[in-house]
Amino acid sequence: MFTAEGPTVRELAVQALSSTERGYDLLAPTFDHTPFRTPDRMLDACEEALAQTLPTPPAAGLDLCCGTGAAVPLLRRLCRERVTGVDFSAGMLARAAERFRTAADPAADPAADPAVGPAVDFVHADVRALPPALHGSYDLVVSFGAFGHFLPAERPGFFAEVHRALRPGGVFAFPIGAPPRLSSPGWWAAAGFDAVMRVRNALWRPPFVMYYRTFPLGGVRADLEAAGFEVTTQALECFGRRPDGSPNWRLLLARRPA
């Protein structure tokens, strides 16, 4: 499905009837060949915006819900000393570690070349309860394409963990899209998907948490500010603007005060 190298319909069905963690373990071998992977265009736009926005290159970067490591090259180009990826799926981490193994065979993937940036370490953990060893260790934290896996009630705890991971003055950055208009096919597709997932989780255990409309900018900003962040946004102009002039995509920058 999606491409010849992607998952089959049957494989996606098995994933959808598994727990969130087990589902991604199953999807890991073919994940990079699905639309679920963050597009390179989005990663490039965020990297460019961060390079222009950060006053100095960060020493250490952390990718939360890193999956197979799509955003790791971004952090390796931006950061000087250390890059860490965290995910709760052992299968996804195995794929990421295979790609970015510590320069043993840099020819295996250009992004693994030690000349590109610092080496990478991967941590198997739930980002809602980060290991204490990661607290206060990072200048830049990013996350891409994972927030549909957090229920609104989980956001405050998750943001508190990010706050703990950052050094004073550090930044938590991620893209956030404008909500589709009620009259658009995108709104109805997202609403329909969320409705199906709510029915599935009401009738089937274990739950698979994935929703498209549980991460609105207003609520996210309020929860970040309550967690102690100073929040700004920057338009990602390459994705255009809506008829009212607002950007289709923004880079949200949540800074832990120095």
Give an account of the 3D structure:
With 258 residues, the protein is of the alpha/beta class. The protein has 2 domains: 1-36, no CATH class; 38-179 and 216-255, Vaccinia Virus protein VP39 (Rossmann fold). Helix content is 34%, strand content 18%. The chain has a 7-stranded mixed β-sheet with strand order 3-2-1-4-5-7-6, sandwiched between helices. α6 (155-165) crosses α8. The chain is globular and about 45 Å long. The N and C termini lie far apart (47 Å). Mean pLDDT is 91; it is low at 102-107.
Uncertain spans: 102-107
Can you list the strand order of the major beta sheet?
3-2-1-4-5-7-6
Count of distinct strands:
7
* Portion in beta strands: 15-25%
Major sheet description: 7 strands, mixed
Supply the number of helical segments.
8
Instruction: Name the CATH architecture of the largest domain.
Output: 3-Layer(aba) Sandwich
Looking at CATH, the homologous superfamily of the largest domain is Vaccinia Virus protein VP39
What do the pLDDT scores average to?
91
* Radius of gyration from CA coordinates: 18 Å
Q: Would you state the CATH class of the largest domain?
A: Alpha Beta
What is the terminal-to-terminal distance? Answer: 47 Å
Tally of individual domains: 2
Shape: globular
| CATH topology value of the largest domain | Rossmann fold
SS-based class? alpha/beta
